[in-house]
Amino acid sequence: xxxxxYTMLCEQAxxxxxxxxxxxxxxxxxxxxxxxxxxSPWLDAQGHAPYAWSVLGAAAQATDHIPLMTYVTCxxxxxxxxxxxxxxxxxxxxxxxxxxxxxxxxxxxNEHIVGGQWPIAGLRHEMLxxxxxxxxxxxxxxxxxFRGKYFDVESAKVWDLPDPTPAIGIxxxxxxxCHLAGRNADALIAVQPHAELGKMFDDAGGSGKPRIGQVPxxxxxxxxxxxxxxxxxxxWFVGPWKTNAELPxxxxxxxxxxxxxxxxxxxxxxxxxxxxxxVAAIRRFEEAGFTHLALVQVGGDAxxxxxxxxxxxxxxxxxxx
Length: 321
Hints:
TIM Barrel; 45% helix
């Protein structure tokens, strides 16, 4: 049976609410929880971008058993991979072994803030693979000195190491990234319910490993309210990820998606109270071979109502089938 997770979306809620919401999700019976790691929201209307790693530390202490995961962190621009290795090791210790390190090649929106040229996708993938090599080397213990094509590490050691170290998931959306994940990851991360992503992951060495998806939805008892919430805060989702990875600012997303219509968003995600629509969106990932699926409820002010509805209706329905 596919595991169903909850998403702490940093772009739409402040840090205290995110911690409160994940405790509610744990009590509601979600199987795991993930958190986005963004420096900026996608759109100004979302209005938030707290530091995900501080939220994770608080969540580890506020919860008891729910597994936690970054979905995802880019270990190549804002963060040096040696720092990510230390942060993830600490999270594994704080959470009592409940942490998975989800990694990706990043988006310009979040990574441009440190300056420098935004690399093309091929270079970002090379940087990510080198970063994973550094992280794993540091988790082996001892002192690491590394001279790479993109990163240097000088006499670094992670002093507080958990046993076991965190699993690493890698985000993928095409041939190159799926092969990278198959070679280097303990799990595949993807946001599209396409079975071919899993096949490419398998072919590169990922056979038998988890596939972790994510799907947005907008639950509300009123259909139009749910649609309007998406139009205000999440209409960027209708665009291709190749575009979204390149746009540098929230205003860029405002401009790129100013002509999106209500029909466009309802074609991409379930909106409103219809349980069958939400279940169908989940089933598409299950049919594509995903083992885990994190749900994203659109709207920071809609989380408690969504979690209650998920506990009472959505989760029991998905699991009963």
